[in-house]
Design brief:
By secondary structure, the protein is of the alpha+beta class. Helix content is 40%, strand content 11%. The protein is globular and about 70 Å long.
Length: 483
């Protein structure tokens, strides 16, 4: 959905961006312990249940910064002993990110936190079932469009009162990236969620290939222009052609472009190329010149991509690129870790840029409180802990990139990943969410988009026919909700 009215402006200070650009480092992590080691000797923390104040604050060092406010301005001091939270998380990175900080939160709060891991393909259905019926879950960590649907249906709790009543005095909501807090959290006039994981698709490219003098010379001779990281869709098509061996037998890689196109991800490439789903009035906005051009670009890229890309999910596509089979790939930031692993054929050879055409798809996850929770105050304190200035530094190592401006300004964070310059610049341009932001029927409309884009890719319909059919199905599905 297009976000207008100047919402997406520059999201970081010049100093932070300069630090990232100047760092020139290739690792995503700094040298910090995987375990939560205290500085010097472990500081004494509350051991007694029932609310006794800690004699000293718990301190941990991450990214060169001492985390001395994990007790949230003294508002965590063991007073929640005997209370339990249940938190559903998607298996994988989210599960690890939450599970890693739970022991520390339990120690500080006195509470028990049960982390329930759910496979990705079952996650949304289980979450919706609980919010509607069983009401076992307390904290809701989910994609933004789904949180908006839950807020519309009054299934999650408004958070303004929680913040004013229970947050520590240093919990600064204005510190979140400009636009991010409003776009992710506010819906229908209420604050429904706190940003937890900001996401936008980036262009990953083989830096070693783009800097190779013989390839630069061959490209200049063929196209009469210099080989450079593409910024426009037209430049991208030309570069992709050059690096595709079936077109250019001299290419050092098989394909100019790759990404995961398994059903469920197809629409992301179309959005990256300039497509849109609904406008700010929730009216279909795909059957137009921009949408047709975007779909034609997808079909053109198909000529320079592996034939099996429509069977590739996240892991398969990421490994394919990390094996050195393609010159470029558009993907969520998590690809970086795969590329930088010790088994990667492209380790230290990858650059990152804004997606060509500057219409990258916007993802992102937020965290809120189930309206059915019996422990709403405690649920808020866990959310506050995970999204506080110090808490943010505990999640970065598990691919949960920061949401706060101050976090990006920590020198150790800025130097920890070459991603962050491109990531923060991309937030200026990202306007269309990965999931259609229409309450109640987001999943259904996602499926509609997937079906019709894949029909065009299979050659069964023209781009014009595919988008006309998509538009009509959107109209029909929205009418069912209105009635």
């Amino acid at each position: 959905m297009m976000r207008r009215n100047g919402l997406w402006k520059r999201v970081a200070t010049a100093a932070a961006c300069t630090a990232v650009a100047a760092a020139g480092l290739t690792g995503c992590k700094v040298a910090v312990s995987e375990e939560m080691q205290t500085t010097a000797e472990t500081a004494a923390v509350t051991e007694a249940a029932g609310g006794t104040e800690a004699s000293e604050k718990k301190t941990i060092e991450k990214f060169g910064k001492t985390l001395d406010n994990l007790d949230l301005d003294g508002t965590l001091h063991g007073q929640y002993a005997g209370q339990t939270l249940t938190v559903p998380v998607m298996s994988g990175d989210f599960e690890k990110a939450v599970s890693d900080v739970v022991p520390l939160f339990e120690e500080l709060s006195g509470a028990k936190v049960v982390v329930e891991s759910i496979p990705g393909e079952q996650f949304t259905d289980k979450l919706q079932l609980d919010l509607n019926n069983t009401k076992r879950y307390d904290v809701v960590l989910a994609p933004i469009a789904f949180l908006h649907s839950f807020a519309k249906a009054d299934k999650i709790e408004p958070l303004d009162t929680m913040i004013s009543q229970y947050a520590g005095e240093s919990y600064d909501t204005s510190d979140f990236l400009p636009g991010l807090f409003d776009t992710y959290g506010n819906y229908d006039g209420k604050l429904c969620a706190i940003p937890y994981k900001p996401d936008v698709e980036l262009l990953f490219y083989r830096k070693d290939l783009f800097e190779d003098e013989s390839l630069k010379k061959a490209y200049q001779e063929k196209y009469e222009t210099e080989l450079k990281v593409p910024e426009t869709n037209e430049e991208m098509m030309q570069v992709a052609e050059f690096f595709t061996k079936s077109v250019n037998p001299e290419s050092p890689v098989d394909y100019g472009y790759s990404t995961n196109m398994l059903k469920g991800c197809t629409r992301l490439l179309w959005i990256n190329r300039g497509g849109d789903d609904v406008d700010e009035n929730l009216k279909p906005n795909m059957n137009n010149e921009a949408g047709i051009d975007a779909l034609n670009r997808v079909l053109k890229l198909q000529e320079y991509a592996p034939k099996e890309w429509m069977q590739m999910g996240w892991d398969e596509a990421n490994q394919f690129f990390a094996n050195g089979n393609a010159a470029m790939m558009e993907q969520w930031p998590g690809l970086w870790l795969t590329c930088q692993s010790d088994t990667s054929a492209v380790k230290d050879k990858i650059g990152v840029a804004v997606a060509p055409g500057k219409t990258p798809v916007l993802g992102g996850w937020g965290v809120g409180i189930s309206a059915g929770s019996q422990n709403k105050e405690l649920a808020w304190k866990l959310i506050e802990f995970m999204t506080s200035k110090d808490g943010e530094l505990l999640k970065i190592e598990n691919t949960m990139d920061p949401c706060r401006t101050s976090t990006y300004e920590v020198p150790g964070v800025a130097q920890s990943s070459l991603l962050y310059g491109a990531l923060m610049e991309s937030f200026q341009y990202a306007k269309t969410l990965a999931d259609v932001d229409v309450p109640y029927i987001s999943s259904k409309l996602n499926d509609v988009m997937e079906f019709h884009i894949q029909e065009a890719m299979a050659g069964k319909v023209t781009p014009e026919e595919a988008l006309a059919n998509m538009e009509q199905e959107f109209i029909d599905e929205m009418a069912k909700v209105e009635n």
